[in-house]
User: Fold this.
Amino acid sequence: MGGRLNEAEIKVHVSSLHEEHECNLDGAVVKCFNWTPLHAAASSGQLELFQQLLSSSPELADALDSQQRSLLHLASANGHIGIVKALTKVRPEMCLARDRDGANPLHVAAMRGKVEVLDELFQANPHAARAYRVDRGERETILHICVKYNQLQFLQMLLEKYFKGEEFVNAKDNAGNTILHLAVADRRFQIIKHVLSDTEIHVNATNESKQTAMDILLLGQKKGTKPKGVDYDIQVLLQKHAKRFKDAVDPTKLPERKNGIIVAAVLMATLAFQAGVAPPCGVWQDD
Assistant:
């Protein structure tokens, strides 16, 4: 793979499409099938060789390895911007391709913190940034992924450049958690600080367990004890705006709602009675 390949050599390499190879995925050497020279070049960042192979076998631009990873997944995960540009130029739809874990190339770039790749992928296919990663019951946005993998710089770029002022920041995962729920659960102080100060996050949003971000922070703390360390710092940030679920529901609104329902019921009953006494078309007088 070190030098230029002639046409005969390319055909030999392409014919090995279904052979077994050892490949390095996320630091682990595993057995891969459908591992073509294009996959190797995309993973290692050999742009000149990749371009030569792609021009000779353009039909392999959509090839997936045994982990269901496309060439774009591999180039994005490793931050090879030249190869990302070459692929998005000919196959922008591959930005939406999902690997075995339900992640598209943008999700993979977020996991690995490849900020350089973000612009190219977003410009090629903006819908990929809004697609959920869906895998075995899990469902999360690229923003959830940034929090989960502690990618503050990637998250800041997404929120400031692409999702500023958008409701997307309040999207929930399969458990009903917003990015604020996750950031508090993982004690990501810098992420919490950024999200609270620079977004329109719903600080008192509840998840499927009826928990706000403040509930999650206080979960497990003994009543009457003061939080320490990062828990204390997070509570100082949250308490300016956030509440526990039981405090977020205003009990003074409940009687008003109950009275409103009673008034509406009386009004409906009155209208029904009037319609019976004086029908819209009058009473039939012939018999």
